[in-house]
Design goal:
Bound molecules: ligand UAG, adenosine-5'-triphosphate, 2,6-diaminopimelic acid, magnesium ion
Number of strands: 23
Helix content: 25-40%
Largest sheet: 11 strands, mixed
Structural class: alpha/beta
Radius of gyration: 24 Å
Shape: globular
């Protein structure tokens, strides 16, 4: 592909800045990391959070980069053409979209502090059941009819994301639901994806190590509506939160078709939740949409799953599926792995694995399980190292307030001292026990279960490793529960 076709005037407005000889260069790949540059690549030098890609321009050229894109040319000059752009991260994403041009015809993206993985999985399941070839991309990786690929980021870097989208489109996927994290939106990872509908679940404390203020965090999320979905696209917004009005305002200002969903949802174009009651490990819902009422048996535990299900239903309806058929699909939803998943039972007590690793999610998960704890509700959890330290005491207090028994353990300590992380949580978790080894903590909690208890193991959900230092040790809450049940007996 010619350099001029990758960095065209249509999106950069800087075509004039590209020398004719450079514009005619053949580019055979794009790269954002000098360590993976191949001969023929166009290298994007990105200023990052730890270092600056500009420091690796020479390394990239030595590896075969034929041209470099950045916001300032290197002081000592550059041996290959250097193209100056004002926003290299956005230029990278838009170039990736040109380099990997195929995309499913229908794409929905979901943002929000909690519920993205669940909404992406539910939307994929609804479309699949309606007969579409469907995929999802996010925290649990890529799930599509032809392949499942474990992922490490919620929104992959632009090259990985656009490559994956192109591959699934080639496989015949026509419908894609994917997660737009605030990091991803802030770093322009998903620019260039042709998103026809956006979902917004909620906004609570998260990532305060990255975003300087809550307003900055919300603004990053609202980029989905402000910058990524073209006029006329659908914006499905959970209407039950403090931030809902601002999200709706941003979507309206862009000329999107707003569908407000939830208890405060719009019974006309949106979906209004009229009633909800727990029914065993399911919930019975009544909803209204366009003057009609629908009864739905949602086969999922946890009130928050109603929000996720309604945002997903909205995304399917907003992209053209028939509402009655969509609501019927909700009766068959399966939870994403490790999201309030009932993984076993001992002594008549249910054991759940959940991915709550932020304050609001932990509160919601505990509140959701209260109806299943006729006796005590026990929680085992920790907090990740090298992540927002401010959330630790808050989560400790939430556990102490909402559970009857608390065990603080480790959850990906990364480069931090695990005992210091535990101490920060314990500071506000009055009466909690401390068992650092996560398998041991799970075993101890399971050992003590009495009939009528419920156990929540929170924070790792689907994860398959424990990150200690820079090593990833194989670990899964599912396997730890299974091992404890095997040795102790169910
Ligand atoms: C803090 C953060 O978000 N960092 C992301 C960012 O990296 P960065 O640009 O800041 O990296 P950097 O290390 O400063 O390097 C700057 C540049 O120099 C380049 N470089 C560096 C070294 C070298 O030898 N050669 C070279 O070219 C790097 O490739 C990079 O382009 O851009 C990279 C490319 O898109 C991301 O992979 C990387 O995610 C890191 C790995 C990460 O851990 N991110 C997490 C926090 C994250 O994004 N999480 C979100 C949210 C999850 C949630 O909602 O809970 C997610 O979407 O997963
Ligand atoms: N709508 C919701 N409101 C509040 N909490 C929720 C909601 N949905 C899920 N949760 C909680 O958040 C956890 C993570 O859910 P999910 O993976 O769907 O969200 P996510 O936004 O993708 O999270 P992450 O950003 O960590 O990938 C769940 O295990 C549950 O504890
Ligand atoms: N996407 C989140 C996941 C956190 C999961 C939790 N187990 C932890 O390691 O803190 C992050 O990277 O911050
Ligand atoms: Mg997720």
């Amino acid at each position: 592909m010619k350099l001029r076709d990758l960095l065209g005037q249509d999106f950069l407005g800087n075509d004039a800045a590209i020398e004719p000889a450079a514009a005619a260069l053949d580019v055979t790949g794009i790269a954002l990391d000098s360590r993976v540059v191949k001969p023929g690549d166009l290298f994007f030098a990105l200023a990052g959070h730890k270092t600056d890609g500009a420091r690796f321009i020479e390394a990239a050229i030595a590896a075969g980069a034929v041209a470099v894109v950045g916001d300032h040319p290197p002081q000592g000059g550059c041996k290959v053409p250097f193209i100056v752009v004002s926003n290299p991260r956005r230029a990278l994403a838009l170039a990736a979209a040109k380099f990997f041009p195929r995309q499913p015809a229908t794409i929905a993206a979901v943002t929000g502090t909690s519920g993205k993985t669940s909404v992406a999985a539910f939307t994929r399941q609804i479309w699949e059941r309606l007969g579409h070839n469907s995929a999802s991309i996010g925290t649990i990786g890529l799930v599509s009819p032809k392949r499942t690929v474990y992922g490490s980021l919620t929104t992959p870097d632009p090259i990985a994301l656009h490559r994956q989208i192109d591959e699934i489109a080639r496989d015949g996927v026509t419908h894609l639901a994917f997660e737009a994290s605030s990091h991803g939106l802030d770093q322009y990872r998903l620019d260039g994806v042709r998103v026809s509908a956006g979902g917004f679940t909620n906004l609570t404390r998260d990532h305060m190590d990255y975003h300087p203020t809550v307003a900055h965090y919300l603004a990053a999320k609202l980029r989905l509506f402000r910058d990524l979905i073209p006029q006329g696209g659908a914006a499905v917004i959970s209407a039950d939160h403090e931030c809902s009005a601002e999200a709706i305002k941003a979507a309206r200002a862009k000329g999107l078709r707003v569908m407000a969903v939830g208890r405060n949802g719009d019974a006309g174009e949106g979906i209004r939740l009229v009633s909800a009651e727990v029914d065993g490990f399911a919930q019975k819902l009544a909803v209204e949409h366009r003057g009609k009422r629908y009864s739905i048996r949602l086969p999922l535990v946890g009130e928050f799953q109603i929000e996720n299900a309604l945002v997903s239903a909205g995304l399917a309806v907003g992209t053209g599926s028939d509402a009655a058929n969509v609501f019927a699909c909700l009766e068959h939803l399966e939870g994403a792995k490790g999201r309030l998943e009932r993984v076993g039972e001992r002594n008549g007590a249910s054991i759940f694995v959940d991915y709550a690793h932020k304050p609001d999610a932990l509160a919601k998960a505990l509140q959701a399980l209260r109806p299943y704890a006729k006796r005590k509700l026990i929680v085992v959890f920790g907090a990740g190292g090298d992540r927002d330290a401010g959330k630790r005491p808050i989560m400790g207090a939430i556990a102490a307030e909402n559970a009857d028994g608390v065990i603080i353990t480790d959850d990906n300590p990364r480069s931090e001292k695990p005992e210091a992380i535990r101490a920060a949580i314990l500071a506000e978790a009055k009466g909690a026990k401390e068992i650092g080894d996560r398998a041991e903590a799970i075993r101890a909690a399971i050992d003590d279960l009495q009939p009528g208890d419920a156990l929540l193991i929170a924070g790792k959900g689907h994860e398959s490793g424990q990150i200690v230092g820079d090593r990833v040790l194989p670990f899964s809450d599912h396997e730890a529960v299974a091992a404890a049940l095997t040795t102790r007996g169910a």
